[in-house]
């Protein structure tokens, strides 16, 4: 019987596998109200969550975590992680069904839908296999009506808990392979 022991594994550049090489995180706290078209993707407003990152190695993987706060006066809302404006972290196509990274159904669950807000979260290990700059962002989708980002639907200047302001976060970590 043979035994092989190693105190660490490294790539050809001498970097240990699994090490975090760089991290970028963006937090957005500006509240938005957006009129939307049913089942249409909208990039997160502004560039508050936009992350531009250049890999140290072509073989690196990227661990992405998103936490997006959405109020909505429709029934459902969802998010999609994007790399260079293309969706990632979505299932294979099944007929004409929408494919999303995370969704919350029936947002009008409260007696008064104006008081509804949810934080949608997702994470994904991406393997872009490139040396070039990567742009990560989040797209939003709803069944129509209004979409409210980082705030509840009802946004009166009052002290009730449902008149709230929230924040959204996108974090990307490059992992050596």
Percent of residues in helices: under 10%
Give the count of helical stretches.
0
Question: Would you list the SSEs in sequence order as H and E?
Answer: EEEEEEEEEEEE
Q: Note the quaternary state here.
A: single chain
Question: Can you name the CATH architecture?
Answer: Sandwich
The biggest beta sheet reads: 6 strands, antiparallel
CATH fold descriptor = Jelly Rolls
Question: What is the SS-derived class?
Answer: mainly beta
Please state the average pLDDT score.
81
Rg for CA atoms: 19 Å
Note the overall shape.
elongated
Can you put this structure into words, describing what you see?
The protein is mainly beta. It has one domain: Jelly Rolls. The protein contains no helices and 12 strands. The strands form 2 sheets. Strands 1, 2, 5, 9, 11 and 12 form a 6-stranded antiparallel sheet that branches. Strands 3, 4, 6, 7, 8 and 10 form a 6-stranded antiparallel sheet that branches. β6 and β7 (86-88) form a beta hairpin. 27% of the residues are buried. The mean pLDDT is 81.
What are the salient characteristics of this protein?
Jelly Rolls, 177 residues, elongated, six-stranded antiparallel beta sheet, 12 strands, mainly beta, 43% strand
Task: Give a brief outline of the structure.
0% of the residues lie in helices and 43% in strands. It is built from no helices and twelve strands. A hairpin with a 2-residue loop joins strand 6 (77-83) and strand 7 (86-88).
Task: Detail the topology: elements first, then pairings.
Blueprint: E1 20-28, E2 32-36, E3 42-43, E4 51-53, E5 61-72, E6 77-83, E7 86-88, E8 102-104, E9 117-126, E10 134-142, E11 145-149, E12 168-175
Antiparallel strand pairs: 1-12, 2-11, 3-10, 4-10, 5-9, 5-11, 5-12, 6-7, 6-8, 6-10
